[in-house]
Amino acid sequence: MLKLENIQMQVDDDSGEKFEILKRIDCQFEKGKVYAVTGPNGGGKSSIAKVIMGIYKQSQGHLYLDGEEISDLSISERANRGIGYAFQQPPRFKGLTIQNVLTIAAPNADLIKVRTSLRDVGLCPEDYLDRDLGAGLSGGEIKGIEMAQLLLRNPVISIFDEPEAGVDLWTIQKLLKLILSTYKGNPNKTAIVITHNENVIPVCDEILVIAGGMIDAKGTPEQVWKLIKDDIECKVRNQCQGEISYAIK
Amino acid sequence: MQLSKLDMDLLEAVADLKKVPQGALNIRLNGVPVMRHSSPNISVGPNQDGSGLLVEIKPGTKNETVHVPVMLTQAGLQEKVYNTFVVGENADATIVAGCGIHNDSHVESRHDGIHEIIVRAGARLRYAEKHYGEGNKTGKRVLNPTTVVTVEEGASAEMEMVQMKGVNDTLRSTVAHIHARGSLKIIERLLTQEDQKAESDITIYLEGPGASAQVLSRAVAQGDSYQLFKAALIGRDACQGHVECDAILMDNARIRSVPEIQAEDAEAVLTHEAAIGKIAGEQLIKLMSLGLGESEAIDTILEGFLR
């Protein structure tokens, strides 16, 4: 289980003032479940993911993985403890082939598994394995390869940051089925899917709505839907202070 | 002559050879040729004034390779060699050159290699040249290659020039003349470390209609090293050319990149792009999120970049 305890994160804005990205995040992600993390743009969803991966450092609070505190571990140490993150906007690499990067992601995977991981995200291995993970690929292809890395790596906690962005409808449907079959009910794994996709959210086990750097709502899809069903609108509150939130009337 | 283990290690470093290959060959060790073979289609012999080699590949030769590596293991040796390569009409061949210096002394070892390469009409050439140096004392390892290439009508050449390690100073000069429908691709990869210096000066004249050239330079400068990359494309007819220079800068190193394009015909299409920067943070983070440590991630990025 992954537990986030009072996670807060501040950054300096352009004028040197402190700006709160995450205000107080308390939550836990259990094994065998698929979580949807949703909410308005700029609300803090990807920041939470990056704090979990160790890319961002929290200003306050603690993270625990299966009871062990991981708050001060490096990115690599967290990766080697079983946390994986598919980036929203993955970087490109000059000179590294797709096979190189998939092999780094899962050094012990044989070629059959490597090829399967590409097929799972709608990419034909024959066309991609030897290609450079560079400028010649479209955004959708890069995104598919990013998810193939995470699926192949198969960590204990898998975080998918907007897997639907730039990916065609057929592939995202296929990918969604794969995520659900891989993680739902799996006693050793957890999936966290940051998403705006209306098809993804209802089939997840639990939903966290993140807005204004806080958890605005959480629960099963039915519970969250009940909270917001009458009227949900995304509106900007106190925008001059950078506070954005879902408003539940 | 039997090559020592040191010689064989250098041979592998510069020519990827684990054993002496069959076929056309000239191995130059400490200023003298120690092995020389010709093949039925490739003649390898001394040039007229004895200052180097004349390698002639017969017209129509297909898929043959000639190896001409140079090794210096004698401390303080300084040499200048003139080699000429002629690739006959419609031939398709590979030349593997390269120079390795082992200098474990306090005096300078130096090899100046002057190559003239003529790729006759309709021929295709792949040329690989790797430079490498090793040694633990203060004696410099200096390599100054000069290459003059002529690509005749409808011919093509792809030249890969690599310097990965251990060379203190290098001044690389490459001049090419590309004639009608001829094409040239130059791939240059340079890594400098400590206080090493590397200068590369490439000038390509696109002389005929349909001539094309592409120069791709990848450079990594570490420590206190310095690199200067100059590439000029001169379009004198309806031609196409592109220069691309990418460089990664680390530590206190410096890189200066000077791409130049000069069009002398309204139908010439010439472009250039150059970028110098540190290792992209998101690339590092990505590889670390796959479990690599920071230094492992840096090595992986550099290895890929220079591949």
Please state the average pLDDT score of chain B: 96
SSE topology string of chain B: HEEEEEEEEEEEEEEEEEEEEEHH
Reported by name, the CATH topology of chain A is Rossmann fold
Let me know the number of strands of chain B. 21
How do the strands and helices of this protein lay out in sequence?
The complex is a heterodimer of chains A (249) and B (307).
Chain A: E1 2-12, E2 18-29, E3 34-38, H1 45-53, E4 60-65, E5 68-69, H2 75-81, E6 83-86, H3 98-105, H4 111-120, H5 125-128, H6 139-153, E7 157-161, H7 169-183, E8 190-194, E9 206-211, E10 214-219, H8 221-228, E11 232-236, E12 244-248
Helix pairs in contact in A: 3-6, 4-6
Chain B: H1 5-15, E1 25-29, E2 32-37, E3 42-46, E4 53-57, E5 62-67, E6 70-72, E7 78-87, E8 92-96, E9 99-102, E10 109-119, E11 124-134, E12 141-151, E13 156-165, E14 169-178, E15 183-192, E16 197-206, E17 212-221, E18 226-235, E19 240-249, E20 254-263, E21 269-277, H2 281-289, H3 294-305
Parallel strand pairs in B: 1-6, 4-7, 5-8, 6-9, 7-10, 8-11, 9-11, 10-12, 11-13, 12-14, 13-15, 14-16, 15-17, 16-18, 17-19, 18-20, 19-21
Antiparallel strand pairs in B: 1-2, 3-4
